[in-house]
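Notes from hallway chat w/ T.B., transcribed later so I don't forget. T.B. wanted the structure written out for a chain they're using in a teaching module, and asked if we could keep both sequence and structure tokens in one place. Agreed to drop them here.
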Amino acid sequence: MSDYDLLSTDQSDQWDASRGWEATGSARTVDTSVPHDGRVRFRLLGPLEVVKDGRDHAPTAPKVAQLLAMLLLRPGRLVTTEAIIQELWTATPPRSARSTVQTYVYQLRRCIDQNGLAPDAEAMLATRSSGYTMRVDPDQIDVFEFQRRCRVGRVALTQRRYAEAAQLFNSALSLWSDAPLATVSCGAVLTGYAVDLEEQRRNTQHLRIEAEIAGGLHRELVGELRSMVSSNPLDEGLHGQLMRVLAHSGRRLEAMATYRQLRNRLAADLGVEPCGDLQVLHHELLSAGEPTRPR
């Protein structure tokens, strides 16, 4: 039986010929910074969006949105039916799970067709013997554009092109609008993806600040780092960066006070000392020597 022969078993995703496909919702206007060049772009670094010519056509039915997110995180690659079932129902899939997955695929193809997202919905969302493949270019998906800009930024940083590296990291971070998959009800698989993406975002923020410090921005970063430290009181990396910019700004006593506050907090909350790098940095401050700049 083909996907198109199936009727939905989930009333929330029901097709009604008189009203249109409920899972798509009405098209929504989105950020005009997305080029209106006719190409479809997919956003996962925030609310799930499927953008064409400034309009969002993302499905609003929860499980159809989950399915789309699963496929977009592996563009051009097989996503097995087993992985989809694990995402949609975790440890308690219904007996009809496989046929219901086929129904959601059918509905997603209807979304593609109705909104003109591809000339051929079945070619874009291809059925394979053990699952499905979403045939879109990675550069249409913000996650992969974010990762590409980060890679280029790291190269610039290693080559000491600090201003360029900072600009690239800032450009990568500008693609984020909220927590990843903010409007998707994530199961076990997508939750793991989201946690990893948040870690990539955090690391990119760290590298961006490193590039700006190496490029000579110190006083300019104090306020931002104080705010970030306040929101992340146990983040030793952020505390180290704040200590360095304070010291380079002629505020050594404040830098040492930052270390003491972190040390007290770590001892009270976790019963541990600051990491070795922070201890070395603190020793440099006590010795009245300026912290070593990153190479």
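Follow-up for T.B.: Strands lie at 15-16, 20-21, 28-29, 41-43, 49-52, 55-56, 78-80, 125-128, 131-134. Might be a good example for the class.
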